[in-house]
Amino acid sequence: MTFRSVMLAAGLVWVAGVAMAPSLNARQKTVWDGVYTEEQAKRGAELYTRDCSSCHQDDLAGDGFAPALSGPEFAAAWEGLPVADLLDRIRVSMPPTDPGSTSVAEKVDIIAYMFKANRFPAGTTELPKDAGSLKEIEYRANKP
Ligand code: HEC
Q1: 81 in ligand 1 pocket by Cβ < 6 Å?
Q2: What is the per-residue pLDDT across 53-65, written as a single tens digit (0 to 9) for each?
């Protein structure tokens, strides 16, 4: 192998890598991949009623002061972001009067309920409760 052919091969590998990058990205897990279970969403619905619906309303439409947790504005706010960011937002600030009153595990179940309300499909594994796994799941309002 000549130096020239090695450089050419390296160049081809680089080009292939660049060409493949977007398709790898497109295969990232999203909220459309069945990332929660029906059972979990049911638990989340009860917790949502207990801790969130007084402001965000039963139908997640918000009350003018508290924003909607479904629909186009909510989707625009979270589009393309990891679900870990959504959990973080809720973890540190919701409910506003006492964020610690709802446990992180309960908040993950509430997110599962929010996903169901936003018509993302349920699957066979629960939405994980650790931030690392939630970083791998992307919020997408529409099926990619
Ligand atoms: C006392 C009323 C109240 C309660 C109870 C409450 N929220 Fe909120 N929530 C708000 C308000 C007001 C905002 C917007 C201002 C802010 O972020 O503080 C908000 C913002 C949010 C956002 C950000 C929305 C966006 O468009 O980015 C999320 C997500 C959220 N709340 C989820 C929850 C969840 C989940 C619960 C229950 C654990 C909850 N909230 C309980 C009043 C409330």
Answers
A1: no
A2: 999 999 999 999 9
